[in-house]
TrEMBL record, chain B:
Source organism phylogeny: Bacteria, Bacillati, Actinomycetota, Actinomycetes, Mycobacteriales
Organism of derivation: Nocardia mangyaensis
Source species, domain of life: Bacteria
Protein name, UniProt field: Reductase
Length: 505, 306
């Protein structure tokens, strides 16, 4: 890489989003890009989440890119290794490995107004300059330990679900699992097979739907391979099936009761003890927190070597967990299946935009963006899985693909029209977010429960209040009316809106 | 509303204690006279079981709480009542009242209340639970626990009951604040709550379990050689809440519970003919009429470490 000539595109993160962006850039004829990856392998969240039982709860057919179809998914829902293999296969197929700079940890982004370039600070390395930046670091990239008093006092083995210790042998061990979210319900059935005793510490139970995971027959795979249209039809089928679920999951409707009834029936058929059933029955509407998809969790909880603990955790002690009923539960190992530090109130990387503004400061009450991909004051920078881009009912990859298509179009515009900057207008961004937050008030996520979707103050910075179709449609084309455009080598502004102002003014 | 529920929750979280904080083998277990020792065993068993019943009551209230903070407070109270029961069981163990790993059987009146709560508590409104549970707590806190702290010189028991009392004082403060919160409801809501609650047949079963339980408790107190006035003084304190706080007095269910408390402490009231008869009748209820003991009532343990 030349020290003098800036890159056209710098992509931060070699997870699903970063790799997808690189593929689409290449397909659109943009080839001067580099992916900066802090790890030594590709895969992001799927590289990090290798705990036993790790799998996706969206069908693989849909949890993959339409522009990189895979006929070989072995099951309806794939395990983490298969997903990781898919990401790696895309890297190989599209010849991206040479474009990935492993071990490059981006420590900061600063916009240079004079040159209209981003300075990308790299830990222990020389700063790199780029015309455009794609922040594909993802919201689920940093493992989060819960804020429990005495967490440092515990002297036994500690494992976070997103940083699994594969060298630790659970055989004959007493194990605690803290958390009962999406990771925990996958880990627990695996652990009860190995450990001597497992205690699962639950704060609030989630709605659990059965997961019907069927193997894909070789014949089906062959059909998909020979007639790609069939795979595309299958994908559409899954997409519309999930879209219909939005009617009960995104908004509180009579269909929400139907979803709850299915989950209650599932609970009733799998759990006999009425008190255990009561402990596992959520006190909030389905969809308010992430729906859990598993048919193995409830049976695992009822195994002789497994106990569900619902007493509030008072603190961690040297040997285990003290709960409010006054008992110290002792363990050889505590597994924290407590999710991630989701970037709801700050950016994962320090970002300094135009006029010295700092993104984390602007987002300290809750992150926001324009259509989740661009932020006013930060020209030529795009986000994948940015604020309010989360689906509660459909595949994140469908949403991500729409973002990638949108931002690669915008990048194409900057490069092909030789723009110095492309920056979303503040007024457009504000109006978008005003409407978005208004629409969010009617959703299940804002219906009163506490979840990782919301900030401490109850601000929803993560979810998109609508159908996937609506999300995809809003990103179908880059509307230049919504942006301030500055051509290279001039201070003038190309802008058709009423509020067009010189971005460097 | 001057009561700060968030502040209370923070206080509750900050003041958690565990059975492991107490040295159950410390000297002083032999300070109990043999005569008292014999009477103390059924008394402690009842006390421990009533704490467990209170725990289940709070579990139901957690589901009814109007805010997430109050719900969380009740989740803690549920666990704390269980902690008290566990600590009382640990004391029984310390005093050599348990045979091996034995957990004493609840008496028939407690069994009836357990059965009732298991079946119906989750369906009761906050105004019902929020007035009856404080009444039971006042009676417990004011009479039974006070009796123990006055009569038992064992320093370990003193230490345990000091902690239990501190928890109970937070429970009562919250209970009263919730009664005041309920009192702020509109007259229409209070009326609907009252009528809606009383037309349920389950409430009759509840009353038929609750009435003999109170009189049975009184019998046990008397059996111990304690002046029943102690129990009555505690119940008078429950009556006094409404006099101090006219808003709480607006809650019709509070008034009913208060009126009932008035009958209980008046030994000449004809109510006792019924209540005493119910104690006798319930004593003869065969076990087979009761369902199996729910699993929540089997979580008691005297072991500080699991």
């Amino acid at each position: 890489m030349s020290a003098t000539r800036p890159l056209d595109v710098a992509i931060i993160g070699a997870g699903f989003a970063g790799i997808g962006t690189a593929i689409r850039l290449r397909q659109k004829g943009i080839t001067d890009f580099v992916i900066f990856e802090r790890g030594t392998e590709v895969g992001g969240t799927w590289r990090d989440n290798t705990y036993p039982g790790a799998a996706c709860d969206i069908p693989s057919r849909l949890y993959s890119y339409s522009f990189a179809p895979n006929p070989d998914w072995s099951h309806t829902y794939s395990g983490s290794q298969e997903i990781l293999d898919y990401i790696e296969s895309m890297v190989g197929e599209f010849g991206l490995r040479g474009r990935i700079r492993f071990g490059h940890n981006v420590s900061g982004l600063v916009f240079d107004q004079a040159d209209g370039l981003w300075d990308i600070a790299l830990e222990g390395r020389e700063t790199v300059r780029a015309r455009t930046v794609v922040l594909a670091s993802g919201p689920l990239s940093n493992a989060g330990f819960p804020r429990i008093p005495g967490i440092e006092d515990y002297q036994g083995h500690k494992i976070h679900s997103a940083r699994w210790d594969h060298d630790y042998d659970f055989t004959g061990k007493r194990v605690a699992v803290v958390g009962t979210g999406a990771s925990a319900v996958q880990i627990v059935p695996e652990l009860v097979r190995q450990a001597a005793a497992v205690k699962v510490f639950q704060r609030t139970p989630g709605w659990v739907l059965p997961r019907l995971n069927r193997p894909t027959s070789p014949r089906t795979m062959q059909i998909y391979r020979q007639l790609p249209i069939t795979q595309s039809i299958a994908r559409q089928g899954w997409f519309w099936g999930h879209e219909s679920v939005a009617l009960g999951v995104v908004w509180n409707t009579p269909l929400t009761r139907v979803v709850e009834s299915v989950a209650k029936l599932h609970l009733r058929t799998q759990v006999r003890d009425p008190w255990l059933r009561r402990q596992l029955t959520p006190g909030f509407r389905a969809g308010c927190k992430r729906l859990l998809m598993t048919s193995d969790y409830y049976p695992a909880l009822q195994r002789d070597n497994c106990t569900l603990v619902t007493w509030p955790i008072a603190r961690l002690s040297e040997h285990g967990i003290r709960t409010a009923e006054g008992i110290e539960h002792r363990f050889d190992c505590i597994v924290f299946a407590t999710g991630f530090d989701v970037s709801k109130t700050g950016s994962p990387i320090p970002v300094t935009g135009r006029d010295g503004r700092v993104l984390a400061d602007e987002w300290n009450k809750g992150a926001y963006a324009y259509k989740s991909v661009a932020v006013a004051g930060y020209p030529n920078m795009f986000l994948t899985f940015g604020p309010n881009s989360g689906p509660g009912h459909n595949s994140a990859l469908v949403y991500m693909e729409a973002q990638i298509d949108y931002l690669t179009d915008a990048i194409g515009m900057i490069l092909h029209q030789n723009l110095r900057t492309l920056e979303v207008r503040r007024d457009k961004q504000d109006r978008y977010n005003e409407r978005l937050q208004q629409r969010l008030t009617a959703t299940t996520w804002n219906s009163g429960c506490r979840s990782w979707y919301l900030t401490e103050d109850g601000f929803n910075a993560t979810m998109f209040p609508g159908f996937g179709t609506q999300y995809v449609r809003q990103l179908a084309a880059v509307d230049t009316d919504d942006y301030l455009l500055t051509p290279a080598d001039t201070e003038s502004v190309i802008g058709t809106g009423d509020h067009a102002v010189a971005p460097f003014g | 509303m001057s009561f700060d529920f968030d502040d209370m929750l923070a206080k509750i979280k900050a003041r958690q204690w565990a059975l492991a904080d107490i040295d159950w083998d410390a000297p002083g277990a032999d300070l109990i006279e043999p005569e008292l020792h014999a009477k103390l065993k059924p008394f402690m068993a009842d006390l421990m079981w009533i704490e467990n019943v209170g725990a289940r009551g709070f579990a139901a209230m957690a589901q009814k709480a109007p805010t997430e903070t109050l719900s969380e407070i009740y989740r803690y109270f549920h666990a704390e009542e269980q902690r008290h029961a566990n600590a009382e069981l640990a004391l029984m163990r310390r005093w050599g009242m348990l045979d091996g790993d034995e957990i004493p059987e609840p008496n028939i009146n407690v069994k009836l209340v357990i059965d009732f709560l298991d079946k119906y508590a989750d369906g009761m409104s906050l105004s019902f639970l929020g007035t009856v549970i404080p009444m039971l707590e006042v009676a417990l806190d004011g009479a039974l626990i006070k009796f123990i702290t006055d009569e038992i010189t064992d320093p370990v028991a003193q230490e345990a009951f000091k902690k239990i009392n501190a928890d109970e004082s937070r429970h009562l403060a919250t209970d009263y604040a919730v009664m005041e919160l309920l009192g702020h409801s509109t007259a229409r809501k209070l009326f609907i709550d009252l009528v809606g609650g009383w037309i349920k047949p389950s409430l009759l079963i509840g009353v038929l379990s609750y009435v003999p339980l109170l009189n049975k408790m009184r019998d046990n107190v008397v059996e111990m050689g304690v002046d029943e006035e102690r129990l009555y003084a505690a119940m008078r304190r429950f009556k006094a809440v409404g006099e101090r706080n006219p808003i709480a007095n607006r809650v019709p269910m509070y008034r009913i519970v208060k009126m009932h408390a008035g009958w209980v402490i008046n030994r000449d009231h004809p109510y006792h003919l019924l209540a005493d008869a119910l104690v006798k009748i319930t004593a003869r209820v065969p076990d087979r009429f009761l369902g199996p003991q729910p699993t929540w009532s089997k979580e008691l343990t005297y072991e500080p470490v699991a």
